[in-house]
Automatic annotation (TrEMBL):
Organism of origin: Origma solitaria
SUPFAM superfamilies linked to this entry: Fibronectin type III (SSF49265)
CDD domains linked: FN3 (cd00063)
PANTHER family the record matches: FIBRONECTIN TYPE III DOMAIN-CONTAINING PROTEIN 7
Gene (name only): Fndc7
InterPro entries for the chain: FN3_dom (IPR003961), FN3_sf (IPR036116), Ig-like_fold (IPR013783)
Gene3D superfamilies in the record: Immunoglobulins
Pfam families: fn3
Protein name: FNDC7 protein
Length: 686
């Protein structure tokens, strides 16, 4: 084993260790240091001098020995030295109660009689502050805000021996930020808060308070955005600086008034046609209001006011979009509800009423803006006639004729209803149809027509319509006469009433038949001595004819559907009056008179023939009248012969007739005109 080492010196610089110095021992490779405190000890192996025993208790007296070591073993312990460890360092509790002070406190240190505490900026600037005290706390003031300081403290014992020192870095709390500015973003309802940066600040906190509501924003920069602000509110904005030492005092509060809220309780009234009244509730922090009214055609107007209502001009049939904004120095309120108001549709224009008949009118008008439906109302007479349609025309039927009506066309819309301010138009209906009461014959071609008059200021026109043409008569009364009507014609007679308003419907037609026409040509021819044939041209409208031949000696009459008739019982040599009645199918009669008729003279009687010679014959007869002349005709196969006696004679002679023949002999009165009579008796002569 190596030799025993000798301790040169032993001392304590730290409260938990003792350092030992010795001279080296030849052959020793290591050394064992031992510090003993009563029954406890601490050993440490080192290679050479000096060596330090660690893990000791502060302010404790230890016996220090040393032993040398090599591969052969350990030497005996050296003579001991008594060494006392220095005092423990005070454990500091440091804080910065304000931006320019640091407070240091500690617990009492065993065996300490006093303490030394020093403060100095960590960056070496400025001077060091040092205080000696027997207390366990100190406060350093007049320091720089937000600055990092190094605090060092140690205790000393009764001998003035300093113990371990304790070093602590502490930053003073920051100063309150300066030049705080608040910029309000009205559109986003947020505020940008900015300030001048402060020394030694780690973070800043911005507090925005309004009553119990507090909003905070933390940042490490010199500005902060505070969102979600409320409209119509006043906020107080303060900024506090923070670092690891604490917080600064809040800055003086800066007042921030936000934009007003959108006005509520908006009401829109059309107090009278063409005028809109927009009203709303007042808004906190609203200095004035602007109302925007935009029509559906794109035109926009606005109104500035410090009151809570505005008046606007409006047009019918428009939809207006209305929004109300409140303003203050912070800006414009958010967009609230956009209201739309549709005014009543316009009253129809270009109104026209055209009567289709006396009880039917067609009403037309130009389409108007905003109208979805139209109602036509005709008030008058005994009630109201209504017509509803989406078209711009309406037909009013079942109107009363000859009646004044107030016709109004109302327009309707789904949004607003009816425009009740439309003015009526006075319209009178056409006259009522007259009713023909009677028709009477005044003369041959004149018919009087009477009707019931039930109109005011009407002119009546009576029309007779038939195949023969049209005939008219006009009157403002209740009768007129149709003149120059043709005979034998059928007519349909109707009447209408006319007034400045219009024309009535025709009355019901009444049939009219004029008396048949008298035949223009009438021919009489004697068939036998007692039978006469009468023929005539057709009379227009006649169906039955009654012909009469009348003389003092008697009358001959016949009824026929034909245009001829045979009349018997005619007296020869007699003058007759000739009349004819033409009768229509309905019994209308025309009495026609003609030129008188004379029947032929009577045939002679007692005709006898006497031979005069071989070639002659005398014809003898008995005359029916003294003034009648006769003619004798002798007709045979070999020739015809005749003779006429002198006036007053009753015979004549025919000579030089061929013999040996059979002749027919006729003696007949001589007529002034016309053919010979052939109906007198014939005699045969051989």
């Amino acid at each position: 084993a190596p030799d025993i080492p000798v301790i040169d010196q032993a001392y304590s610089k730290l409260s938990n260790s003792i350092t030992v110095e010795w001279r080296a021992v030849p052959g020793a490779t290591h050394y064992m240091l031992t510090a003993q405190d009563g029954d406890s000890f601490v050993e440490t192996v080192v290679k050479n001098s000096p060596g330090t025993v660690m893990g000791l208790k502060p302010a404790t007296l230890y016996r220090i020995t040393i032993r040398s070591i090599n591969s052969g073993g350990k030497s005996q312990p050296s003579p001991f030295r008594k060494v006392k460890t220095v005092l423990a360092a005070p454990i500091l509790s440091v804080r910065s109660p304000s931006c320019d002070s640091i407070a240091v406190s500690w617990k009492a240190v065993h065996m300490a009689t006093g303490f030394a505490v020093s403060v100095m900026r960590s960056d070496g600037l400025g001077r060091m502050l040092k205080e000696n005290t027997t207390n366990t706390s100190l406060v350093f003031t007049n320091l720089d805000p937000g600055t990092l300081y190094t605090i060092k403290a140690y205790a000393w014992n009764a001998n003035g021996m300093p113990g371990d020192d304790f070093t602590y870095n502490q930053r003073t709390s920051p100063n309150a930020p300066a030049d705080v500015k608040v910029a309000f973003n009205s559109g986003a309802l947020r505020a940008a808060v900015s300030w001048m940066p402060t020394e030694g600040v780690l973070t800043y906190s911005v507090t925005v308070s309004s009553g119990p509501l507090k909003l905070r924003c933390n940042t490490s920069s010199a500005s902060c955005m505070v969102p979600s602000l409320q409209c119509s509110s006043e906020y107080y904005v303060s900024v506090t600086a923070h670092n690891d030492a604490g917080s600064s005092k809040p800055t003086d509060a800066v007042s921030l008034k936000t934009i007003p809220c959108a006005p509520g309780n908006i009401s829109i009234e059309e107090d009278e046609p063409g005028h809109l009244l927009v009203s709303w509730s007042s808004v906190s922090f609203g200095h004035y209001y602007v109302v925007f009214v935009k029509s559906d055609d794109g035109l926009e107007v606005h109104c500035n006011t410090s009151y809570t209502q505005c008046h606007f001009q409006s047009d019918c049939g428009f939809t207006y979009f209305i929004s109300v904004f409140a303003y203050n120095k912070a800006g414009q309120s958010p967009l609230g509800d956009v209201f739309n108001y549709t005014t009543a549709p316009c009253c129809p224009s270009d109104f026209r009423a055209v009567f289709m008949s006396s009880d039917t009118a067609r009403v037309t008008w130009a389409p108007v803006r905003g109208a979805d439906l139209y109602e036509t109302r005709a008030a008058g007479g005994s009630g109201v006639v209504l017509c509803k349609d989406t078209a711009t025309a309406c037909t009013l039927s079942a109107l009363q004729c000859n009646t004044p009506y107030n016709i109004t066309v109302y327009s309707f819309s789904e949004a607003r209803g009816s425009n009740t301010s439309c003015a009526p138009q006075y319209v009178a209906t056409a006259p009522c149809s007259p009713e023909i009461k009677n028709m009477s014959k005044e003369a041959l071609s004149v018919i009087s027509v009477q009707w019931q008059s039930n109109n005011d200021e009407a002119t009546y026109v009576v029309t007779a319509r038939g195949e023969a043409g049209l005939w008219h008569c006009t009157s403002t009364g209740n009768s007129c006469s149709l003149t120059d009507l043709p005979c034998g014609s059928a007519f349909s007679v109707s009447a209408i009433a006319r007034s400045p308003v219009g024309e009535s419907l025709p009355s019901y037609s009444v049939p009219l038949e004029t008396a048949p026409c008298c035949p223009t040509d009438l021919i009489l021819s004697q068939v036998t001595q007692s039978v006469t044939n009468i023929s005539w041209s057709v009379g227009m409208g006649a169906q039955i004819y009654v012909t009469t031949l009348e003389s003092p000696k008697g009358q001959a009459k016949c009824h026929t559907l034909q245009n001829y008739c045979l009349l018997g019982c005619i007296t020869c040599g007699t003058n007759y009056t000739v009349s004819l009645r033409a009768i229509s199918e309905t019994g209308e009669t025309s009495s026609c008179t003609y030129q008188g008729y004379s029947s032929s003279a009577c045939c002679p009687s007692g005709v006898k023939l006497y031979r005069l010679s071989n070639n002659g014959i005398r014809v003898f007869w008995r005359a029916s009248g003294e003034t009648i002349n006769y003619n004798a005709d002798l007709c045979g196969s070999k020739g015809n012969f005749s003779c006429t006696p002198s006036s007053g004679l009753n015979h004549c002679d025919i000579t030089e007739i061929p013999c040996g023949d059979v002749y027919t002999v006729v003696v007949a009165p001589v007529t002034d005109k016309g053919p010979k009579l052939t109906f007198c008796p014939k005699k045969i002569y051989s």
